From TrEMBL:
Any GO MF annotation of the entry: transferase activity
Domain of life: Bacteria
Binding site for Mg(2+): E256
Enzyme class of the recorded protein, top EC level: ligase
Assembly and oligomerization: Tetramer of two alpha and two beta subunits.
Name of this protein: Phenylalanine--tRNA ligase alpha subunit
Family designation: Belongs to the class-II aminoacyl-tRNA synthetase family. Phe-tRNA synthetase alpha subunit type 1 subfamily.
Cofactor, how bound (note): Binds 2 magnesium ions per tetramer.
Every Aminoacyl-transfer RNA synthetases class-II family profile domain range: 109-340
EC number: 6.1.1.20
PANTHER family, per database record: PHENYLALANINE--TRNA LIGASE, MITOCHONDRIAL, PHENYLALANYL-TRNA SYNTHETASE
Length: 344
């Protein structure tokens, strides 16, 4: 039986060494160490041995089992390692290949213009304020010296949601809300950018929804000359130091006196061309001194406080600065158009 055990060991080790397959290795294990395996069959015959032979054969059998088991484990580790290396090699990434270019977007042109204007006015001591786009009739009209029935309300052509709620037609309600918040107790220096809505037919220069930036400065001894200085600084920063401005008399219910501001045409330098329709000037915004009624309704004493306000269309500023000839291009999401201004 001793010779039989040694033969089983030699045969098993030879087969283990010669296999390169995990499945075959498992079959070898079953063939020699399983319930019906060669070694198990020999051990079952130990009952026929004498008492003296059993310990000797049992010791040999244990050594054979250990030798086969160790060989199986070592071979299993080798095969697993080889399988892992093959898998890694098959899944390897070729880092010599050029990478796929990642397309990076940029801010929308209107966003860039708004941020540029905000930075300019923040540098002059203004703060940025926001308000609701769904506004009350009171703040959108009445608090701005436009009582019910006032003919200037028709200029706005409003989207009404109810008798008292509407889509704001300008960002001036933010000014009225801010003054009411301060309750006539401290100066105001603010700008308010945001979307506004009007019943208008969309074309190259009009849109039912567009963006405004309005400003307000209320304090003691505020004069028209302060307004002109602020607007002159704005025009030169936005359109170039060579730009000149002029103020023309106009009418707005919430300012008195009211003015329209023009800048000298950058195409012709003021000589007259098709862009400025031969005048040499281009209108860009409206402004004026805050009407005493507006100050009084917000809690400010018009005998003590004065102020100025101005409002501009962001799209118009962008169109003039970058030569865009159709306001609809800002909203059609044409990537070819938008990509031109990623670094604007």
């Amino acid at each position: 039986m001793k010779e039989q055990l040694e033969a089983i060991q030699s045969e098993a080790l030879e087969k283990i060494d010669g296999t390169n397959n995990v499945k075959e290795l498992q079959e070898i294990k079953v063939a020699y160490l399983g319930k019906k395996g060669s070694l198990t069959g020999v051990l079952r015959g130990m009952g026929k041995l004498s008492k003296e032979e059993r310990p000797v054969v049992g010791e040999i059998a244990n050594k054979v089992r250990e030798a086969i088991t160790d060989a199986l484990e070592q071979k299993s580790e080798i095969l697993e390692q080889e399988a892992m290396e093959k898998q890694l090699e098959a899944e390897a990434i070729d880092i010599t290949l050029p990478g796929r270019q990642v397309k990076v977007g940029g801010p929308h042109l209107l966003t860039s213009i708004v941020e540029e204007i905000e930075d300019l006015f923040i540098g002059m001591g203004f703060e940025v304020r926001e308000g609701p786009e769904v506004e009350t009739d009171y703040y959108n009209f009445e608090a701005l010296n436009l009582p019910k029935g006032h003919p200037a309300r028709d200029m706005q052509d409003t989207f009404y949601l109810t008798n008292e709620l509407l889509m704001r037609t300008h960002t001036s309600p933010v000014q009225a809300r801010t003054m009411r918040e301060f309750d006539g107790g401290k100066p105001v220096r603010m700008i308010c950018p945001g979307k506004v809505y009007r019943r208008d037919t969309d074309d190259a220069t009009h849109s039912h929804q567009f963006t405004q930036i309005e400003g307000l400065f209320v304090d003691e001894n505020v004069r028209m000359s302060d307004l002109k200085g602020i607007l002159d600084t704005f025009a030169k920063k936005m359109f170039g130091q060579e730009r000149k401005i002029r103020l023309r008399p106009s009418y707005f219910p919430f300012t008195e006196p009211s003015v329209e501001m023009d800048i000298s045409c950058k195409v012709c330098g003021g000589d007259g061309c098709s862009v400025c329709k031969g005048s040499g000037w281009i209108e860009i915004l409206g402004a004026g001194m805050v009407h005493p009624n507006v100050l009084e309704m917000a809690g400010y004493d018009p005998e003590k406080y004065s102020g100025f306000a101005f409002g501009m269309g962001t799209e118009r500023i962008a169109m003039l600065k970058y030569g865009v000839n159709d306001i609809r291009q800002f909203y059609t999401n044409d990537i070819r158009f938008l990509k031109q201004y990623h670094n604007a």
